[in-house]
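Issue 218. Parser rejects a valid record. Input:
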Amino acid sequence: MKKLLTSLPVICTAFTSFAGVIVVEGKYQDKNLYVQNGYSGNGIGFCTYEVTINGRTTTDEVNSSAFEIDFTAYSIKPGTPVVVEIRHKDDCMPKVLNPEALKAKSTFEVININVDKDGLLKWSTKNEMGSLPYIVEQFRWNKWIPVGEVQGGGKMDKNDYTFQTTAHSGENKFRVKQIGFGGISRTSDNVTYISTVGQPTYTISKDKSDIKFSGETLYEVYDAYGNVVKRGFGNDLNIVTLSKGSYYLCYDNIMADFAKK
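Output the parser choked on:
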């Protein structure tokens, strides 16, 4: 094997090129690969001379200026890991036109999703064609915010997940989301439950150095331009570093405002 020329790491897909072989790895996403081939350096014959899928030589017609690597002929199921090797002559280089075809996309289908009285979120899925993280989101302050992450199993059959949520007072809403290749997201339906946790209150110290909550809570502080300047969880919020001005305080399921003087 000759010296490694390039190495391009990507999410859920590896695309590397050696002198003599191009390797494309990932999971079959129900799409074929397309290769721009061309002639060898000496002008005799075409550049590619063999293609293998998971070690098996394909019957694709490679003696042309462009060809398709067809996965359907090998009964490969969507979500199956695949390694494609394109062997070529040393004096030329074919080009894979769509290596992203093996990158993971969000394809999950929710079988069921619920949250119990203790705030444990449970969901089951099928038809995952790649291992992508699930982002757990909670509806607070008139928007969906991320509150945690669970790595997806990536199996086509049943996948089971749990996540311990942190409730605010009153009605809570949760959902899960995946972001696949190209930033395309897929989101579950939301589930709700009613928390009996009391709604906390807050006070600002006389020296304007901190905010005290009567109970632990998730919080965010925005400046007058809508920029997040503080974010966290607890019953004490230090604001000594904030400049003088007006701010918006979001905590529990409440939105309020205060001034730093």
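Fixed in the parser; the record now loads. Residues 4-102 form one domain.
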